[in-house]
Amino acid sequence: MAGDMNILVIGSGAREHAIVWKLLQNPRVKDVFVAPGNAGTAVIARNLPIQPSNLAELRAAARAHQVELTVVGPEGALAAGVVDEFEAVHLPVFGPTRGAARIESSKAFAKDLMQRYGIPCANSATFTDYAAAKEYLYRVGAPVVIKADGLAAGKGVTVCTEYEQAERALEAAMVRGEFGAAGRTVVIEEFLEGAEVSLLAFTDGRTVVPMAPACDYKRVHDGDEGPNTGGMGCVAPPPFFSQALIDETRRTVLEPTVAALAAEGSPFKGVLYAGLMLTSRGIKVLEFNCRFGDPETQVVLPLLRTDLLDIVLACTHGRLETARVEWEPETCVGVVMAAGGYPDRFDTGLPIRGLDLMDDGVRVFHAGTAARAKPEVTGLRRFYTPQAPEPSLEEVLSGNIQTAGGRVLTVVATGPDIEAARDKVYRNVARIHFENAHYRRDIGVLRAPPASEAREGPALVSGGQTP
Ligand code: AMP
Ligand code: GLY
User: Fold this and answer.
1) What fold characterizes domain 331-446?
2) Ligand 1 within 6 A of 426 CB?
3) What are the sequence ranges of the domains in the chain?
4) Can you give the pLDDT at residue 397?
5) Which candidate, 155, 288, 281, places its Cα nearest to that of 229?
6) Over pLDDT 70: what percentage of the chain?
7) CATH match for 123-190 among 3.30.1490.20, 3.90.1150.10, 2.60.40.1930, 3.30.2350.10
8) Is the peptide bond before 302 cis (omega within 30 degrees of 0)?
9) Are strands 186-190 and 215-216 parallel, antiparallel or unpaired?
10) 157 lines ligand 1 (CB under 6 A)
11) Which ligand 2 atom is at minimum distance from the Cα of 295?
């Protein structure tokens, strides 16, 4: 029997495709609407042509479609106050308010909070005055990390091995205004070394329940070469990040941060994402995000054994302690297939083939994809009933799906260990084709860390670390 609950998911990435896919597993769900979605979400849900920045239209759509729950993907909408807008008219929504989202949208806010509440992080200082910033930089020297305060689409952080590089980064942000208002305030931070891990947690503002940890591969090329990207792949859980470390992070980072935000009058509900570094001096926070990660979500949700909708509703209604949150004892590896040229210039409109050739249990979460014809034309309407069995994409849209962005797909597979999951995912990635597609071949590959990094075993080659 079909359910009676309508849900709205805001966003258009593979993260949102994964969220929609997981929510649909609850039989209470009737329709899921996605604003604006992609060709993948069009198959299992109903796309609405509304951008995440258009808060008024999102609110109107939620009303018009009798939406009982909205889940917000991108940070931009949260920082713009989508949750405040929805709550003002009593529309239930999963995500932090604008005030609480400052934990991501202002690095100066996050650092100040962490320093005042004793949450472990890199030493740093915050500046709005260029001369003062330069003087401080001169005193601390390199290596050092320069961070624009605000949201800068992942480009606001410069890890500087050389002093001159740091001077240029400071000037770019504070003098040339390369990040606009986001870079007028700058955080100058101590350079840390170690393995990076993302630990995301559900929270209702009081209770905190960590998800499976994940490692994001941020650089574009194998061996962590080339520029940073939105994420080229992910593995969950990395074997070196033990249950003891998860518990320690909950106790020393996640719970104190949620309590601090509540104490400051900005209670946080939704997903709190801690970007961590496992240093020789213990766990340190590199950054917080106020939402599900991308590509972390694509590898974490397939491991969630219990029901996502129940957890999200429990958070939204302030009773997370009653929800069951359990994880499969497996490993999930996700490989991002990107357009040739990404993260710089790339072409779009290239046909994608091979999506019908996936092995059982392999999932393809879409990001920059579009159907060439409208769903009405391709007969997609028939699949708008969420409870219908998931059709293969190619079955429905044979030859009709094309690239429409830089990161095109995340292909994910689970297995009893990293090796099994890796073998499976790469076997399937090799069957998907579009012109100039590129992807990393080393997602999930382990390397031995320098002695100073090791705390619990081998570290992953995970993105964003300075070699
Ligand atoms: P963030 O957006 O703050 O996570 O920074 C992006 C990337 O820069 C992180 O994933 C790290 O690889 C790197 N990074 C950030 N802060 C530091 C730091 N204090 N020391 C070394 N690397 C850092
Ligand atoms: N995986 C990095 C992010 O979601 O911001």
Assistant:
1) Glycinamide Ribonucleotide Synthetase; Chain A, domain 4 (3.90.600)
2) no
3) 7-97, 123-190, 195-328, 331-446
4) 54
5) 155
6) 89
7) 3.30.1490.20
8) no
9) unpaired
10) yes
11) 1
The structure tokens listed for 111 are 């650092």
Span 21-36, average pLDDT? 97
Answer yes or no: is pLDDT of 389 > 60: no
Candidate of 196, 220, 234, 289 to mutate for ligand 2, largest count of ligand atoms within 8 Å of Cβ:
289
* CATH number for the domain running over 7-97: 3.40.50.20
Token output for 192: 């840390």
- Percent helix, strand, coil in the chain, to 5, is 35, 25, 40
Q: 121 in ligand 1 pocket by Cβ < 6 Å? A: no
Distance 298 CA to ligand 1 centre (A): 22
Q: How far apart are CA 345 and CA 292, in angstroms?
A: 26
Q: What residue type is 29 in one-letter code?
A: V
User: What distance in angstroms lies between residue 159's CA and the mean position of ligand 2's atoms?
Assistant: 17
φ/ψ of 70, rounded to 5, equals -120, 135
Tokens standing for residue 33: 């609407």
Residue 103: HSE in the Cβ half-sphere, 13 Å Cα cutoff:
34
Architecture of the structural domain at 195-328: 2-Layer Sandwich (3.30)
pLDDT of 442 strictly over 50: yes
pLDDT of residue 335: 98
> Does the structure show a pLDDT above 70 at 258?
yes
pTM above 0.85, yes or no: yes
Which ligand 2 atom lies nearest to the CA of residue 293? 4
How many whole angstroms separate alpha carbon 10 and alpha carbon 55?
A: 10
**287 within ligand 1 shell (Cβ under 6 A):** yes
Q: Are 192 and 278 in contact (CB under 8 A)?
A: no
Angle (CA) 47 48 50, round 5°? 135
How far is 302 from 279, CA to CA, in rounded Å? Answer: 29
Whole-angstrom distance, CA of residue 110 vs CA of residue 102: 7
In this predicted structure, what is the pLDDT of residue 396?
Answer: 56
pLDDT value, residue 379:
44
Dihedral angle computed from the Cα positions of residues 63, 35, 410 and 45, in that order, rounded to the nearest 10 degrees: 60
65-115 pLDDT, tens digit each: 999 999 999 999 999 999 999 999 999 999 999 999 999 999 999 999 999
